[in-house]
Amino acid sequence: MICFRSLAFLFSLFCLLTWSLPAQADWTMPLSYSNAQLQGRDFSGQELQGAEFSNANLEQTDFSHADVRGAVFSASTMTQANLHGADLTYAMLDQSNLTGADLSDAVLVEALMLLSTFDEINITGADFTDAILDGVQVKRLCQQAEGVNSQTGVATRESLGCR
């Protein structure tokens, strides 16, 4: 099941990135912060669609209310990062350490989050609809899931499929 969902996610991400590119010849490549030391940086409210933050140190970084749809955070350290109200639709947060992060009211629709660490995390009002998570992660997140996302109107428990 995970393999099929992973393939479907990757196909959706490919379609989003290729079909949404402008037709003109002067388009720019996404920002790349891969392997960067960005502790405590303020990216709040910024438009960072498709930006690359893989293997970056993002401790205490502020992404609150940022548009990071399709951004890549693979294998990044995001401890105590502020992602409150961020749009992380189609984002790749696999193998990332989100210990102590604030994901309250974040939109994580179809985000890839396999093998990530979610200790001491705030997910109040987060929308995980169709996000790809490990079963163990879902079970742990369901223990604290509450609230409704202000942007999508979806309950956190419902988006995680909690019983």
Q: How would you describe what is shown here?
A:
With 163 residues, the protein is mostly helical. Helix content is 19%, strand content 0%.
Q: What distinguishing features does this structure have?
A:
mainly alpha; 3 helices; Pectate Lyase C-like; about 160 residues; single chain
**Average of the residue pLDDT scores:** 89
Number of helices: 3
Low-pLDDT windows of residues: 18-26
How many DSSP-defined strands? 0
What number of domains? 1
CATH architecture: 3 Solenoid
How far the N terminus sits from the C terminus, by CA atoms, comes to 19 Å
Write the layout of secondary structure elements.
Layout: H1 2-19, H2 135-142, H3 156-160
Could you give a short description of this structure?
The chain has 163 residues and is mainly α. The protein is built from three helices and no strands.
